[in-house]
Design brief:
Blueprint: H1 8-19, E1 23-26, H2 33-43, H3 52-75, H4 90-103, E2 108-112, H5 118-126, H6 130-138, E3 158-163, E4 169-174, H7 184-197, E5 207-214, H8 215-220, H9 222-230, E6 242-247, H10 256-259, E7 276-280, H11 284-301, E8 305-310, H12 328-335, H13 340-351, H14 356-379, H15 407-418, H16 428-442, E9 445-446, H17 448-461, E10 466-470, E11 485-486, E12 493-494, E13 507-511, H18 517-529, E14 534-538, H19 549-556, H20 559-563, E15 570-574, H21 589-595, E16 602-604, H22 609-621, E17 628-632, E18 644-645, E19 657-658, E20 671-675, H23 679-690, E21 694-699, E22 701-703, H24 707-714, E23 722-730, H25 736-747, E24 753-759, H26 770-785
Helix pairs in contact: 3-13, 3-14, 4-11, 6-14, 7-18, 15-17, 17-22, 18-19, 23-26
């Protein structure tokens, strides 16, 4: 017989229990019926009561969370710590999902979060020792270990090992991050993808990314939507990120009505059809149940999932802030509200699951551990420094590196580039380009695209992986790269250089989403977790890099100084004035040089294909890992004078300064024209046409400045009394303001006249008129060589 049908009363009881108590679920926006059915089966009619041992574990985690905050609040009154009070259930949530990850045999987990509750997560999840935290509060400094500027304690990251209740372990990392909310999101996802790419064999998506957000930031910061958009794109997919929103219903002083237009702060996640589990933060058992469910969903469907934990913020934005100015009624209620731990103890005692004395004794034990650690910290504190310690000099970037390849490697790479699968139809226009490339190669020359392919291919053959991502990067914005061929008749794809991969190297070249912020953040995170690969982000035009300025300012140029975090990321930024207007001319060289200090980055503007080849290979062959900012060409991609002899690939290295290829006799030289990038070719052509006594030197590396190489070249010309710096950019842009000190201070005694030739100062990088551009360009060259 068929089982009796449920009554309406039974159905309503089941639905209310599933959706109308401590948990609410949004999943009807998901189009896949299999996913919806899975969620329904795991939510409706399911027993949510935890086993007694897990209940005690949850209480233990709440004890640890509350004890730490109360202790810090008592011992360090008024110090900022951005406590987790009111959102303590976040600790059991993280504990549960990381425990599941460990039990599932995942390789590792990477966590990103802002300042709220960060110290608690560091101690009670990542495993930071009490005394290490107390040293930061005490301001203790070990003068022998100072390196870099450091950062405030609620920005620091750490690695650790998490142990599940069943005894399984998983390595975890809490990524360091700046105050810029949500900026760490794509960085964490990139770190996870890099770790996964290092695992060629084994489980699919073995690294778990976890992101913690504030409610106002999740709705307000555009990088959240950009990062969500990465989740199902092949070049960025990580098999699902678990998002935990600490929804304390206020952003500093901003109410939800002023912070978003949506009903929930998590509505943005519906764009990727992620399920959203809303849960009451005062019900830690419901929170833990949702954490288990979120992890199970991620494992089942390899997609993002969101937990929206409704809670409150016990204090103001920080512990010294008074929130009652703007939220007086809310904080009257919060002041009268018992903590999550106290409410849970009452629940357990009322159910008979634990005795009150036992619960309070556990809390006392945590206090004793904290006090003991503080006493030990203060007893062993080093003497207070009486003067500023001299930071150790960073590892030098000027170390010589052999980057040449042999002829056999050249032939191997060119053979791979030229081979196509049987039956593959190459685009007719590309076939003609290949004929021209073959002719060039047979003449012993390489243009920009071929030099790049030689760099990529030789590294792959040597066992170094190569990753390049950017808008239109597979073909190249200027149709120069063609790294992925598309069959003209059936649309199938072929990557010529992939055949050069070894057991230790892989090739990844992707067209990125139409984003700079998240796209660059992802590649930065990737480069941090895979220091051995050549990792590159390419802007469609260098002008657009400022869409990712936060990643540049807070991570790329400063992370080593703040967090001792290393990266070998390469930024490829097309740059050059060619009459294309103010938005397609300048990659803002001046900004990067302003940010350059302590050898934190390397800034280059190569003017020949061989120089580009060598600087790419140098990036992974040198021992120090530093970000490389490379200003790449547009017109030089096909300019004959920018080609290099093949012999410059099989010998030599990257030259920080290039000598004049066709100088006048040394004794004839009365003027040195120093320049960089594209305009150097125009300058050489103008000088040759005039036949004047000027030599053109090219600063290929703008930071660190090639002081010694420049001095050595200048010594060749004893009669040179004028030094001209020539740049295309306006006076207030380009390299001039960063390098003029090197010229005046270092060479002022050598020359009678040092001057700049540039466009006039301007608020806009370039004119929008091609006719005016041509006049300006001619004027630059005229002034550079006038009277020599």
């Amino acid at each position: 017989d068929d089982p009796p049908a449920d009554t309406l009363k039974d159905i309503l009881r089941t639905l209310r229990a599933a959706y109308c108590e401590s948990v609410g679920v949004e999943y009807m926006h998901i189009q896949d019926p299999i996913e919806k059915r899975w969620i329904q089966q795991h939510v409706e009619g399911v027993v949510r009561t935890l086993e007694p041992d897990e209940q005690r574990h949850v209480l233990d985690r709440l004890n640890a969370a509350e004890a730490l905050e109360r202790f810090l609040g008592t011992k360090y009154v008024g110090q900022k710590r951005f406590g987790i009070e009111g959102a303590e259930s976040a600790i059991p949530i993280l504990d549960a999902m990381l425990g599941d990850a460990a039990d599932a045999g995942l390789d590792s987990a990477v966590i990103g979060m802002a300042h709220r509750g960060r110290l608690n997560v560091l101690v009670n999840i990542v495993g930071k020792q009490y005394h290490a935290l107390f040293n930061e509060f005490e301001g203790n400094i070990d003068e022998t270990s100072i390196q870099g500027s450091g950062d405030v304690k609620y920005h620091l990251g750490q690695t650790g090992t998490f142990r599940s209740r069943s005894g399984n372990t998983i390595p975890i990392q809490l990524a360091a991050n700046p105050s810029h909310l949500e900026a760490v999101d794509p960085v964490v996802v990139g770190m996870a993808r890099a770790r996964q790419d290092l695992h060629v064999h084994g489980a699919e998506f073995p690294v778990l990314p976890v992101l913690l957000h504030g409610d106002a930031a999740f709705a307000g910061q555009g990088v959240v939507a950009e990062t969500l958009n990465l989740s199902q794109i092949p070049g960025y997919r990580v098999g699902g990120t678990i998002h935990l929103v600490i929804n304390n219903q206020v952003g500093f002083t901003t109410t939800p009505e002023a912070a978003r237009s949506s009903v929930y702060p998590t509505d943005v996640a519906k764009m990727v059809q992620a399920p959203i589990f809303h849960v009451n933060g005062d019900d830690p058992e419901a929170c833990v149940w949702v954490a288990h469910l979120a992890f199970a969903y991620r494992q089942q469907f390899k997609k993002d999932v969101v937990i929206d934990m409704w809670c409150y913020r016990r204090h103001g934005h920080n512990e010294g802030d008074d929130p009652s100015y703007t939220q007086p009624l809310m904080y009257q209620r919060i002041d009268a509200h018992r903590s999550v731990r106290k409410l849970y103890v009452e629940t357990l005692v009322k159910r008979g699951d634990i005795g009150l004395d036992e619960a309070e004794q556990a809390m006392d034990d945590f206090r004793e551990k904290l006090q003991s650690a503080l006493d030990e910290t203060r007893d062993s504190a080093p003497p207070r420094p009486t003067s500023l310690a001299r930071a150790p000099r960073p590892r030098p970037l000027a170390e010589p590196v052999d980057t040449a390849i042999d002829q056999d490697t050249v032939d191997q790479v060119y053979g791979a580039l030229s081979a196509v699968p049987q039956g593959f139809t190459v685009h007719p226009k590309l076939a003609k380009q290949w004929e021209a490339r073959d002719a060039m190669f047979s003449e012993g020359e390489v243009d920009w695209a071929l030099a790049e392919a030689m760099a990529f291919g030789s590294l792959l053959a040597e066992g170094t992986s190569v990753r390049l991502a950017g808008q239109d990067s597979r073909r190249g914005t200027f149709s120069q790269r063609h790294s992925t061929l598309v069959d003209y008749t059936d649309g199938s794809e072929h990557r010529p250089l992939a055949s050069l991969c070894t057991d230790h190297s892989r090739l990844w070249i992707y067209d990125s989403l139409l984003s700079e912020y998240a796209a660059l953040g992802f590649e930065y995170g990737y480069s941090v977790s895979n220091l051995d690969a050549l990792v590159m982000w390419e802007a469609q035009f260098g002008d657009f890099m400022n869409g990712a300025q936060i990643i540049i300012d807070q991570f790329i140029v400063a992370a080593e100084d703040k967090w001792k975090q290393h990266s070998g990321l390469v930024l490829l930024l097309p740059h050059g004035y060619e009459g294309q207007g103010p938005e397609h001319s300048s990659a803002r060289i001046e900004r990067f040089l302003l940010l350059a200090a302590e050898e934190n980055i390397c800034v280059v503007n190569p003017s020949t294909s061989a120089q580009y080849f060598h600087v790419l290979r140098r990036q992974v062959r040198r021992s120090a890992r530093k970000p490389l900012v490379a200003f790449t060409p547009k017109s030089l991609l096909r300019l004959r004078s920018a080609r290099s002899p093949l012999t410059e690939l099989t010998s030599g290295w990257f030259h920080e300064l290039l000598a004049d290829p066709s100088p006048p006799a040394d004794e004839r030289v009365t003027r040195v024209v120093l320049t960089a990038g594209k305009i150097s070719h125009e300058a050489i052509a103008r000088r040759d046409a005039l036949g004047c006594g000027a030599v053109v030197l090219r600063a290929e590396q703008l930071y660190p400045w090639p002081t010694e190489a420049l001095a050595a070249q200048i010594e060749r010309y004893p009669n040179a009394r004028e030094l001209v710096w020539l740049q295309e950019e306006p006076e207030n842009m380009g390299p001039w303001n960063a390098i003029k000190g090197h010229l005046y201070d270092g060479l002022g005694h050598r020359f009678d006249d040092i001057r700049r030739v540039s466009r006039d100062e301007s608020g806009s990088p370039a004119t929008g008129s091609s006719a005016i551009h041509a006049l300006e360009q001619d004027d630059l060259l005229t002034r550079a060589f006038d009277g020599c």
